[in-house]
Amino acid sequence: MSDILSKNTVLKALLDQHLDALALREGLDKQVILEGIEKGTMVLLGNPAHKKVRPILVGQPSSIKVNANIGTSPLCSNDDMEIEKLHVAEAAGADTVMDLSIAGNLDAIRTRMLESTYLPLGTVPLYSVGQQLLDNEREVSSMDPEELFAEIEKQAEQGVDFMTLHCGISYRGARMGAEKDRVLGIVSRGGSMLARWMLENKKENPLLEHFDRLLDISLKHNITLSLGDALRPGAGCDAGDTAQFEEVLNLGVLQKIALERGVQCMIEGPGHVPMHKVRTQIEAIKTLTHGAPLYVLGPLVVDATPGYDHISGAIGGAIGVTAGVDFLCYLTPAEHLTLPDKDDVKAGVMASRIAAHAGEVALGTPRAVAREEAMNKARRDLDWEGMKAQAIDPEMVTKRRGVHKDEKVCAMCGKFCAVKMVQDAKII
């Protein structure tokens, strides 16, 4: 045990305040939660400076959580639209939101999001630094590490609950990622920025070199570090290569150091992994990072699905959950193509929620199994309100029933309804 609660007084105060509600919401014994947090297999997302935040647990056996990415881009920057997308994500059942904005007034956007939502908010501080550099016509390689640490501290004070920080990519790893035997090199936006900085300056990653400084900031605000996977595979053919696992090994070391200091950590996992490799990848990463909560993008099991990557990612996510994934970052139909709109956000959240539920059913998680049983009973009884109550997207049930909402049977089968056909049989 790490005795994390004696070192992280902010976390202890949050737990004292919210433990009863968390246990009720998750259907878990309070001792299970406390032991998970002490072992580092569970984290509590919540920064007290985020006044509206409703802290959540990440890490099995708590429920599988889903994150929705939103944020501006240089080609599409509308603050109001991003707030609308945030509320769509909330309504669709996302557990967290990440602001990945890289255009506009990032401080104002971030503050507005924090004021607008009870969901824990995540960021990638390096994006803000990168935007400032570009606005001042400076190259990424000119970044002073002090600028990065100042940004991290500022965002922590603003109330950001968790941060993706690419601490595990080393100078050696950056060189591996840039080598030509990798088909898609480095696809992580933050990872590529750090790699560029390291390769051009011939210096070590400042987040790795000065990790203790990062821990000091995190401990003060209960920032959960989401240790980024800068070298995640961006193509299925790159999955499991040396560069990827060089970083994973580093993340395992850093997670252990952080836990000993009282800082909570999640590990970010692979992006593109063929279906037959998902389980072995997830199990390997979980082992090498000591069972820390694993936060994955997908994984996408095929690459030839632009416009449908939320489906490819949901397939990988469902398999991943059965292998130990704790937190799914959604993919939307816009992935690899453009900035998602409101409809994309909802589609992405729903796809990931389905993946989470499918994984939990396969694991025999009581709450998921009970939901399936209730849905089956409602279908047997042709109880449409009951079906709606158990549906992951109840609005869809109402929408698709439409003009036939007063019918006992669905509009596909009508009088040929198989369920009703047998129920109405006169058995002699």
Can you put this structure into words, describing what you see?
The protein is an alpha/beta fold and 428 residues long. It folds into two domains: 320 residues, Radical SAM ThiC family, central domain (TIM Barrel); 57 residues, no CATH class. 52% of the residues lie in helices and 9% in strands. The chain has 19 helices and ten strands. The chain has an eight-stranded parallel beta barrel with strand order 3-4-5-6-7-8-9-10, surrounded by seven helices. Helix 13 links the parallel strand 8 and strand 9. Helix 6 crosses helix 7, helix 7 runs parallel beside helix 11 and helix 14 packs parallel to helix 15. The longest helix has 22 residues. The chain is globular, with a radius of gyration of 22 Å. The termini are far apart.
Detail the topology: elements first, then pairings.
Blueprint (H helix, E strand, L loop, with lengths): L3 H4 L1 H18 L3 H10 L3 E3 L10 E3 L6 E6 L8 H14 L3 E4 L6 H11 L4 E3 L1 H11 L9 H14 L3 E4 L5 H8 L10 H13 L4 H4 L1 H11 L2 E4 L14 H20 L3 E5 L8 H11 L5 E4 L11 H15 L3 E3 L12 H22 L2 H15 L3 H7 L3 H8 L16 H6 L5
Parallel strand pairs: 3-4, 3-10, 4-5, 5-6, 6-7, 7-8, 8-9, 9-10
Antiparallel strand pairs: 1-2
Helix pairs in contact: 4-5, 4-15, 6-7, 7-11, 8-9, 8-12, 13-14, 14-15, 15-16, 16-17, 17-18
